[in-house]
Structures are given as C-alpha cells and as structure tokens.
Amino acid sequence: MTDPIADFLTRVRNAAAIGRTEVRAPYSKILHRIAEILVREGFLEEVSHRGRGPRRILAVRLRYLDGKSVIEDLRRVSRPGRRSYMAIRNIRPVKSGFGIAVISTPEGLMTNREAKRKNIGGEVLCEVW
C-alpha cells in the first residue's frame, strides 16, 4: 500500500455511504492520530486499536445523527506524488467553517483552526466535512 491515509479515508467514506457502524484498517500512529482528531471534532464516535505487533488494527466507530452519517465527505489533499503545504497566511476555513482540515505541523497533527491559532503552517493531509 503506497498511501495508507488515502486507504483509511476511503474505508471511512465507503462505510458511511452504506451505513456501517464500524471500520477497521491497518494500524499506524498517524492514522490513529487522525482518527483521534476526528473523534474530538465530532465526526467519529470512538477509536481504538486491537491486536499486537504487525497484526494490529485500528477500529473506528462512525457517528450518525437521525440515521445519516455526520461525515458528508472526506478528501485527501496532499498525496505521495504531489505534496500540498500551506503557510499560515493561506489557511482558510473548510466549507465555510463546517469542515476541518487535518494539518501535519512541526508540533504534530492538528486541525486548521488550531494551526491558525498557534500561528504555524504545514502539510495539509485531508479535509473532512
């Protein structure tokens, strides 16, 4: 797998489209951190990891309101073939503030709002709304 972040986002997008409650993906620290941010921002219900060693998996429970997924769409911005970096002055709200962008900064992964507040830029990994 060349892009585990895109794979994870696609699994979540597909599960939300068919109404699944849980998604499983191969575990990595960056995917776990992205999922934690999505839980904190209210897009996912909970995240946990199971197993040991190379067989660890990341289990994510999706969040639904009135039978409809809270996640409308997910989009991978920075890709392995074309990285997308954003300076602090270029960070803008996603979908007029209804969505978030997950940014990899020198201080770790954070949302676009947190990066703007801390006055740091970085690589835009994905957008969720």
What's a concise summary of this model?
With 129 residues, the chain is α+β, with helices and mostly antiparallel strands. The chain is built from three helices and ten strands; from the N terminus they run αβαββββββββαβ. It is globular, with a radius of gyration of 14 Å.
Topology:
Layout: H1 4-18, E1 22-26, H2 29-40, E2 44-50, E3 57-62, E4 64-65, E5 68-69, E6 74-76, E7 85-86, E8 100-105, E9 108-111, H3 112-118, E10 122-128
Antiparallel strand pairs: 1-3, 2-3, 4-5, 6-10, 7-10, 8-9, 8-10
Characteristics:
three-stranded antiparallel sheet; Ribosomal Protein S8, Chain: A, domain 1; single chain; five-stranded antiparallel sheet; 2 domains; 10 strands; alpha+beta; Dna Ligase, domain 1; 129 residues; 3 helices
How does this model look, in words?
The chain is an alpha+beta fold and 129 residues long. It has two domains: 4-69, 2-Layer Sandwich (Ribosomal Protein S8, Chain: A, domain 1), CATH 3.30.1370; 74-128, Dna Ligase, domain 1 (2-Layer Sandwich), CATH 3.30.1490.10. The chain has three helices and ten strands; from the N terminus they run H-E-H-E-E-E-E-E-E-E-E-H-E. It has helices at residues 4-18, 29-40, 112-118, and strands at residues 22-26, 44-50, 57-62, 64-65, 68-69, 74-76, 85-86, 100-105, 108-111, 122-128. Strands 6, 7, 8, 9 and 10 form a five-stranded antiparallel β-sheet that branches. A three-stranded antiparallel β-sheet has the order 1-3-2, covered by helices on one side. A hairpin with a 2-residue loop joins strand 8 (100-105) and strand 9 (108-111). It is globular.
